[in-house]
Design goal:
Helices cover 33% and strands 22% of the residues. With 533 residues, it is α/β, with parallel strands linked by helices. Strands 8-7-6-9-10-11-12 form a seven-stranded parallel β-sheet, sandwiched between helices. Strands 14-13-15-16-17-18 form a six-stranded mixed β-sheet, covered by helices on one side. A hairpin with a 5-residue loop joins β20 and β21. α5 packs across α7 and α15 packs across α16.
Length: 533
């Protein structure tokens, strides 16, 4: 009997036959039952060692508790919001996924939409099918010699760049989280967003939807674009202000748009989808036979390698640490993630070097785990389409040209544990220090060398105000007029004219409201920070 014969793999959603055959060849007992009801899933998972799902199966704490032998859950795809990660971790069940399996498919669709827009393919096809042989109104433009601007140089953006070069196009690349050197290595000219918009004949979006990227293509951005430009979006609908785009297309301000993602799915704006200058598809970027085969094969091979050989790839929740050590550092893992998230959200521009320093008793722990969690906190607000987790965080940082440095601060035993982060980037340096309160809650203890004491939780308005009277009054009045309540305020100065303020707030606060504080001469810098509570 092979080693695999003792393992049963339960499959509850359609997976490419290539993946299932791989498991069978390895000797696994593969049981396929598609779409089971929750009660039936609980029955089926009882004696399963591995579980393969897509996005529809809900792997809840109740399901996990019912399993006696489950060792690994494999997600054929990237998102794992249908899996209770905390419950899986508590039961020692590894959760893996298959990031990047659809990159080529999405990139090819972007190129297809670009060609369809440039050559008016859909319009010409429709006319001919209606019995009309027209050519003049179907005259398009060549892509050869044109400039393409790629917003987001991650996995998909890189695939687009490679294919655009083959088309004879000049490639511009913008990504605030990837070093310029990395972008240049991909054959693209690194530029800022306004420059990209102004110079590109084609602008294509390949970034996750975050608070910062929402409506990245709004009326102002469109006003910077060429009148003969084509906009392509195969990423997320919220990246584009659809009303502003519609107005630009109606007025002839843009040549065309190719859209595979919309603000409201599956009910997109009818006027936009039906516009003669728009080529629209129903979010089919990953809907290819090859993409589905890849994720199916990859999740099957990942499960086989883990169960038979102990090799682990693309783990979402795996941490190698003893139960005793986890008990000691658990509160500091929360601190690390929130401190990293706070630091990255107040930083400006690309980060090139991240320094983590651990003091007190933390210097004697396995602080690499804390660094991983801090990186998760720092990257997650901007890469929420990626699976940012303690296993992948360092790779994602390295892919973006970020150098990670760790150090232990020497000191006497018993010294209060602390954690410091210094982010060095093209636009300056940001430093923060954090610790725990007497109740074990994360606290912010220092920003840019200025000591303070503020809770690291919830919604925060961060300011770098001038050291002059009246700042607190203007902040309170401005937020109060907008029904936003300040629940805690820490404001400290360095005695040399600089100050920092950290205001915990409740109410309908938005990034635009916080940026509006810059109308006051005393508040030249303001940022909205969102942390877990």
């Amino acid at each position: 009997m092979s080693g695999a014969a003792k393992y049963r793999i339960l499959v509850t959603e359609p997976v490419a036959e290539e993946g299932l055959n791989l498991l069978r060849r390895e000797g696994f007992d593969v049981r396929v039952e598609l779409g089971p009801e929750p009660d039936r899933l609980i029955e089926l998972v009882e004696d399963a060692h591995g579980l393969i799902v897509r996005g529809a199966t809900r792997v809840t704490a109740k399901v996990l508790e019912a399993s006696r032998a489950l060792k690994i859950v494999g997600r054929a795809g990237s998102g794992v919001d249908n899996i209770d990660l905390a419950a899986a971790t508590a039961r020692g069940v590894v959760v893996v996924n298959t990031p990047g399996g659809n990159s080529v498919s999405v990139a090819e669709l972007a190129l297809g939409l670009m060609l369809a827009c440039a050559r008016k393919i859909c319009h010409a096809d429709g006319r001919l099918k209606s019995g009309q042989w027209v050519k003049k109104e179907c005259r398009g433009i060549e892509l050869n010699g044109k400039t393409i601007g790629i917003v987001g140089m991650g996995r998909i953006g890189r695939q687009v760049a490679k294919r655009a070069v083959a088309f004879g196009m000049k490639v511009l690349g913008y990504d605030p989280f990837i070093a310029k050197e990395k972008i240049s290595e991909l054959g693209a000219e690194p530029v800022d967003l306004p420059d990209l918009l102004e110079r590109s004949h084609v602008v294509t979006l390949h970034v996750p939807l975050t608070e910062r990227s929402r409506a990245i293509i709004d009326a102002e951005a469109i006003s910077r674009m060429r009148s003969d430009a084509i906009l392509i979006n195969t990423s997320r609908g919220g990246l584009v202000d659809e009303r502003a785009l519609l107005e630009a297309l109606d007025s002839g301000r843009l040549w065309a748009a190719g859209l595979d993602a919309f603000e409201n799915e599956p009910n997109p704006l009818p006027e936009l989808v039906g516009h003669p200058r728009v080529v629209a598809t129903p979010h089919i970027g990953a809907s290819t036979r090859e993409a589905q085969e890849q994720v199916g094969y990859h999740v099957a091979s990942t499960i086989a390698d883990y169960l038979l050989r102990g090799e682990l790839r693309n783990a979402v929740n795996y941490t190698s640490v003893s139960a005793e050590q986890m008990h000691r550092i658990q509160p500091y893992l929360v601190l690390a993630e929130r401190l990293g998230a706070f630091c990255s959200q107040i930083a400006v521009g690309r980060m090139k070097r991240l320094e983590f320093t651990y003091g007190g008793d933390l210097a004697r722990e396995s602080y690499g785990l804390l660094t991983d969690r801090a990186l998760c906190g720092g990257l997650r607000p901007f890469l929420n389409d990626f699976d940012v987790n303690p296993v992948s965080a360092r790779t994602l940082a390295a892919d973006r040209g970020m150098e990670v440095v760790e150090a232990a601060e020497s000191g006497p035993a018993g010294k209060s544990p602390s954690m410091a982060i210094v982010m060095k980037g093209e636009s300056g340096v940001v430093s923060v220090v954090g610790g725990l309160s007497g109740q074990g809650r994360p606290r912010l203890l220092e920003v840019d060398g200025i000591p303070l004491d503020a809770p690291l939780e919830g919604t925060i308005v961060f300011l770098r105000p001038a050291d002059v009277p009246g700042v607190v009054g203007k902040l309170g009045s401005y937020l109060g007029d907008r029904s936003i309540n300040i629940t805690n305020l820490a404001l400290q100065t360095d005695g040399k004219g600089s100050a920092v303020a950290v205001a915990s707030v409740e109410g309908p606060v938005t990034r635009e409201i916080v940026y509006g504080l810059r109308q006051f001469a005393e508040i030249p810098f303001s940022r909205l920070v969102r942390l877990a509570s």
